[in-house]
Amino acid sequence: MRPIVVVHGGAGHIPSERAHGSMGGVCAAVKAGYSLLTAGGSSVDAVVEAVVNMEDNPHFNAGCGSVLTAGGQVEMDALVMDGRDLSSGAVSAVSNITNPVKLARLVMEKTSHVCLTAGGAAVFARQMGIQEVSTESLITEYSRARWKRNQEPGANPVECQMGKMGTVGAVAVDSEGNVACATSTGGILNKMEGRVGDTPCIGSGGYADNSVGAVSTTGHGEAILKVVLARHILFHMEQGRSVEEASDLGLSHMRSRVKGLGGVVTVDAKGEWSARFSSNQMAWAAACDQTLHWGLYKGEHFTEAIVQTL
Amino acid sequence: MPAVLVVHGGAWAIPEDLASASVSGVKAAACEGFSVLKKGGSALDAVEAAVRSLEDNDVFNAHGAVLNSEGEVELDAIIMDGKTLGSGAVSSVKNISNPVSLARAVMEKLQTDHMMLTSRGANLFAESIGMATICTEELVSEFERKEWEKHKNYATGIKEDFNAKAHDTVGAVAVDSTGNVACATSTGGIRNKMVGRVGDSPLICGGYADNYSGAVSCTGHGENILKVTLARTIISHMEQKPAAEASELALKYMGDRVHGAGGAIVVTPSGQWAATFTTERMAWAAVENDTLWYGLNPQE
């Protein structure tokens, strides 16, 4: 099986001054995941590596660069799922750690639970020896400026946040044909304390099953939850649809049933992949057969050979 | 359109000394929910009323709640409206008596369109809408406190308890006379769970309602239900198969794929219903055309 990684850096409207950074970020993340895969790493290793890469990149709404809650805090959600045995780990509303996706992986591997939330997740992170970081270190000037703008009288935070959703995610197939997904987000701007979106919810923020494929989603979280978007797309694939058809069917169902926009990256167990979105833009990148693919606007699809540095 | 309401009081090996109380509890809740439908109430009103009745009953874990590893109570609940796919959920919320009503408030009373609030944020919201808090002691029965002392270790707890004791989610599904469906699920989770553990109940895996196919409420080992997104899987099968067969297929799949046992209640917009489980027992009751159906053991 040829190894594949596909990542997204969020669907929505990406301001032109941020576009370049987002594109560079998804390309770097997909390469990081792909080099692990070609070195014999598992699909879980690859999706976690790719997502960590974007969490550490301040251009994305995950990890450092997360949007702020109404109270000016950072609360992050993340999910990881292993298609071999459907085992999964998730954290919701976690603060003061750099890589929520790593904590989600620990929930999957070190506990008998699937999801830990808020204070309980923080206690678990300490038990696992994860270093606590200050809230300040996760906040960028850009995210603070947007938050401040939304505190001004007459601001319309809901409208403001609809356009800019920068959840990050990845799906991968490794050389043994195992699939995995991971998704991580800071949520939506000006959210209430404790708001949980689609990202940490299995079936909504992502899903991975070796017998079908893997999906990671981004977009309007409440809409994604209502239609359980990732699982919905995999149902279409089980019925014989291609990754691209199934992704488009899922997204158009979400648009017609609950008026929600978003995007997805999808792989199937046979090694087909796609990056589809109903929003204006989605930063995405893919790596397979030593080739890098990427795009931002509808119809865009650039390619370039990957030169691996030893 | 005949209105139908079905409830469950959790799928597990319900011990003999709780059996008759469980059955009378689900019967009472089913009648309570159905009386809402009969008066012309919506499916949403009916499932909320039925689940409140179960939450208020000490026999079930939703209110006679189980304790986590620190000896605290953390509750999860969801409610979903099949007309709009609107839903509200709370996870890891403390010290309120009816999490299902807080979940409904998340769906209806927020200025934002958030669907789920967790932990302290959920409690802050409860406070902001004037929902009364009660002390942990009032949520925990003496029986549970004693059991918790005996099984302080989750790993032993899950081995000995699951399919034996201490884990009963409650839920309800309904279809009203206009063909709208709704579901609600509420739970205290699993005994000795880690602080902050969220199971399937508050997620769309633990319940789902869509007027185009039907409504489901699930119970069983939450981690396994999550892995197969049980409620959504049943609904997908229902788009092609009768309700009972769809539930059986999905529960069998959960058994095969992740070795999980559980139960589900379902209704379709046309009024078909089913109560299915792969555990030893599940307390359930249904009301259709003023007739009450109920059971505890397989084939009842």
From TrEMBL, chain A:
<feature type="binding site">
    <location>
        <begin position="195"/>
        <end position="198"/>
    </location>
    <ligand>
        <name>substrate</name>
    </ligand>
</feature>
<dbReference type="InterPro" id="IPR000246">
    <property type="entry name" value="Peptidase_T2"/>
</dbReference>
<dbReference type="GO" id="GO:0008798">
    <property type="term" value="F:beta-aspartyl-peptidase activity"/>
</dbReference>
<protein>
    <recommendedName>
        <fullName>Isoaspartyl peptidase/L-asparaginase</fullName>
        <ecNumber>3.4.19.5</ecNumber>
        <ecNumber>3.5.1.1</ecNumber>
    </recommendedName>
</protein>
<feature type="site" description="Cleavage; by autolysis">
    <location>
        <begin position="166"/>
        <end position="167"/>
    </location>
</feature>
<dbReference type="InterPro" id="IPR033844">
    <property type="entry name" value="ASRGL1_meta"/>
</dbReference>
<feature type="active site" description="Nucleophile">
    <location>
        <position position="167"/>
    </location>
</feature>
<feature type="binding site">
    <location>
        <begin position="218"/>
        <end position="221"/>
    </location>
    <ligand>
        <name>substrate</name>
    </ligand>
</feature>
<keyword id="KW-0645">Protease</keyword>
<keyword id="KW-0068">Autocatalytic cleavage</keyword>
<dbReference type="GO" id="GO:0004067">
    <property type="term" value="F:asparaginase activity"/>
</dbReference>
<dbReference type="GO" id="GO:0005737">
    <property type="term" value="C:cytoplasm"/>
</dbReference>
<keyword id="KW-0378">Hydrolase</keyword>
<dbReference type="GO" id="GO:0033345">
    <property type="term" value="P:L-asparagine catabolic process via L-aspartate"/>
</dbReference>
<dbReference type="GO" id="GO:0006508">
    <property type="term" value="P:proteolysis"/>
</dbReference>
<dbReference type="Pfam" id="PF01112">
    <property type="entry name" value="Asparaginase_2"/>
</dbReference>
<comment type="similarity">
    <text>Belongs to the Ntn-hydrolase family.</text>
</comment>
<dbReference type="InterPro" id="IPR029055">
    <property type="entry name" value="Ntn_hydrolases_N"/>
</dbReference>
From TrEMBL, chain B:
<feature type="site" description="Cleavage; by autolysis">
    <location>
        <begin position="168"/>
        <end position="169"/>
    </location>
</feature>
<dbReference type="GO" id="GO:0004067">
    <property type="term" value="F:asparaginase activity"/>
</dbReference>
<comment type="similarity">
    <text>Belongs to the Ntn-hydrolase family.</text>
</comment>
<keyword id="KW-0068">Autocatalytic cleavage</keyword>
<dbReference type="GO" id="GO:0033345">
    <property type="term" value="P:L-asparagine catabolic process via L-aspartate"/>
</dbReference>
<dbReference type="InterPro" id="IPR000246">
    <property type="entry name" value="Peptidase_T2"/>
</dbReference>
<dbReference type="InterPro" id="IPR033844">
    <property type="entry name" value="ASRGL1_meta"/>
</dbReference>
<dbReference type="GO" id="GO:0008798">
    <property type="term" value="F:beta-aspartyl-peptidase activity"/>
</dbReference>
<protein>
    <recommendedName>
        <fullName>Isoaspartyl peptidase/L-asparaginase</fullName>
        <ecNumber>3.4.19.5</ecNumber>
        <ecNumber>3.5.1.1</ecNumber>
    </recommendedName>
</protein>
<feature type="binding site">
    <location>
        <begin position="219"/>
        <end position="222"/>
    </location>
    <ligand>
        <name>substrate</name>
    </ligand>
</feature>
<dbReference type="GO" id="GO:0005737">
    <property type="term" value="C:cytoplasm"/>
</dbReference>
<feature type="binding site">
    <location>
        <begin position="197"/>
        <end position="200"/>
    </location>
    <ligand>
        <name>substrate</name>
    </ligand>
</feature>
<dbReference type="GO" id="GO:0006508">
    <property type="term" value="P:proteolysis"/>
</dbReference>
<keyword id="KW-0378">Hydrolase</keyword>
<dbReference type="InterPro" id="IPR029055">
    <property type="entry name" value="Ntn_hydrolases_N"/>
</dbReference>
<keyword id="KW-0645">Protease</keyword>
<feature type="active site" description="Nucleophile">
    <location>
        <position position="169"/>
    </location>
</feature>
<dbReference type="Pfam" id="PF01112">
    <property type="entry name" value="Asparaginase_2"/>
</dbReference>
